[in-house]
Design brief:
The protein is about 35% helix and about 35% strand. The protein is of the alpha+beta class and about 170 residues long.
């Protein structure tokens, strides 16, 4: 896979699989899907991989309140990338799989910092005072549930292999 001089995605040969992990929601689907489809051998697949929590977290309802109060993207509506692509007729799903659940351990500071990689919490967006306020409130919330300073997340990888319809 290459980028041409105009920054467009190009492929130098055909592939049996193209994998996008935790990233496809950021792409311009109408532009990239035809290119990926053209790069696939007959019977080839685009494989979409997303991380998911296998079960809800004890602090989830309180976290939702913090997210609502501090997100710089107040109109955000959660969606599933595969569900959305399929509803728009952009892909055909050929199969699904899910890994076993693994416990991922992370320090509270790392977990809090991970929120700043999200659209509504980018450090480039909120005034630093608001970002620090969010961090402080989230750390206090987690401290009530995880006094040892670590967060254990029950994670899975959800894998879907699809064929672009374009």
């Amino acid at each position: 896979m290459l980028l041409d001089r105009e920054g467009r995605l190009t492929f130098d040969r055909q592939y049996s699989a193209v994998v996008a992990a935790e990233a496809f929601h950021w792409l311009d689907w109408l532009r990239v899907l035809p290119r990926i489809g053209a790069s696939l051998v007959p019977g080839g697949h685009l494989i979409l991989v997303e991380r998911a929590l296998a079960e809800s977290l004890p602090w989830e309802s309180e976290l939702r309140v913090l997210i609502r109060d501090y997100s710089t993207n107040p109109d955000y509506m959660p969606y599933g990338t595969v569900t959305e692509l399929e509803a728009r007729g952009l892909i055909t799903v050929d199969g699904r799989a899910c890994t076993e659940t693994l416990a991922y351990c992370q320090a509270i500071d790392g977990y809090v910092e991970s929120f700043h990689s999200r659209n509504g919490f980018s450090r480039a967006r909120p005034p630093s005072r608001r970002a620090q306020e969010f961090d402080d409130r989230l750390k206090a919330l987690l401290g009530r549930y995880r006094p040892d300073g670590t967060v254990w997340l029950p994670v899975q990888a959800r894998i879907v292999w699809v064929r672009p319809a374009m």
